[in-house]
Specification:
By secondary structure, this protein is α/β, with parallel strands linked by helices. Helix content is about 45%, strand content about 10%. The protein contains 10 helices and 5 strands; from the N terminus they run βαβαβαβαβαααααα. This is LuxR family transcriptional regulator.
C-alpha cells in the first residue's frame, strides 16, 4: 500500500527535470503536496518554514550553493528524522557509497525509469535503504580530509551554513549582511564561529575546505 497525503520536496536546479519528475510521479502518490527548490538556499528556506512536516527530500548533489555532499551533510545534521534520497547523473560506486555514508536513505540515478523512482520512494518511506540493482558499496575512509571536513560542517548552524555558502560565492560581508537583513557585526560573528568550527583562519581557507566536498574533487572509482 502506497503512502498518501505526503509532502515531498524536489531539490534540483533544472526546472524541466523537476517538472517532469513531479508530473510523472504524481499519479503514483495520491494527494501528495509537491514542492520545488532550485538551490541549496531555496531548499533551506523551505525546510526552515515547515521542515518538520516534510516527508521526503529528493536531492540533486549539484545545485547552486551546494558543494557536492555539503547540503546532504547539512540536512542529515539538522533534520535527522527527514529521509533524503539522492538523485544524480553520477552513477559510480564511489559516489553512491559516499551518499549513503553521509546519510542518504537511497540513491536513484537520473537515468532510472519512473517505475524505479516510484519503487525507491516507497521503499524509503517504509524505512528501507534503496540502492540501484547490482551496486556494491565501497568502504569510505573516515580519516580522509573530506571526511573530517564533513564532520565539522555538520556542526554549523543553518545560518552559519548559509553564510559559508555566500563566502563561497565571493560575496562581501556588507552584501551578505544586506541579503540576510542583519548587521555586518553579526556576519563577522558568524564568520568567527565558522572559522573556529572548521579549524581554519580565514574565509579563503573556509571556502577551500568546503570545496573539498565538491563532486569534481571526488575520486571516481
Amino acid at each position: 500500500m502506497k503512502p498518501e497525503n505526503l509532502k515531498i520536496i524536489i531539490a534540483d536546479d533544472h526546472p524541466l527535470f523537476r517538472s517532469a519528475l513531479r508530473q510523472a510521479l504524481s499519479p503514483a502518490f495520491a494527494n501528495t503536496a509537491w514542492f520545488e527548490a532550485d538551490s541549496a538556499d531555496a531548499l533551506q528556506q523551505l525546510l526552515e518554514s515547515d521542515g518538520q512536516a516534510c516527508d521526503l527530500v529528493l536531492l540533486d548533489l549539484q545545485m547552486p550553493g551546494s558543494h557536492g555532499y555539503s547540503t546532504l551533510i547539512h540536512l542529515r545534521s539538522h533534520f535527522p528524522e527527514l529521509p533524503v534520497i539522492v538523485i544524480s547523473a553520477h552513477e559510480d560506486g564511489t559516489t553512491i557509497s559516499k551518499a549513503i555514508h553521509y546519510g542518504s536513505a537511497g540513491f536513484i540515478p537520473k537515468s532510472a525509469s519512473m517505475e524505479t523512482f516510484s519503487e525507491a520512494i516507497n521503499d524509503v518511506l517504509m524505512g528501507d535503504i534503496w540502492l540501484p540493482e547490482g551496486v556494491e558499496l565501497v568502504d569510505i575512509d573516515d580519516e580522509g580530509s573530506s571526511e573530517k571536513i564533513a564532520g565539522k560542517l555538520s556542526e554549523l548552524t543553518p545560518q552559519q551554513y548559509k553564510v559559508l555558502q555566500m563566502f563561497a560565492e565571493g560575496m562581501l560581508n556588507k552584501q551578505i549582511a544586506y541579503d540576510l537583513g542583519v548587521s555586518e557585526a553579526t556576519i563577522k560573528a558568524h564568520a568567527t564561529a565558522i572559522f573556529r568550527k572548521l579549524g581554519v583562519r580565514n574565509r579563503t581557507q573556509a571556502v577551500i575546505a568546503l570545496q573539498q566536498l565538491d563532486m569534481d574533487k571526488v575520486e571516481i572509482g
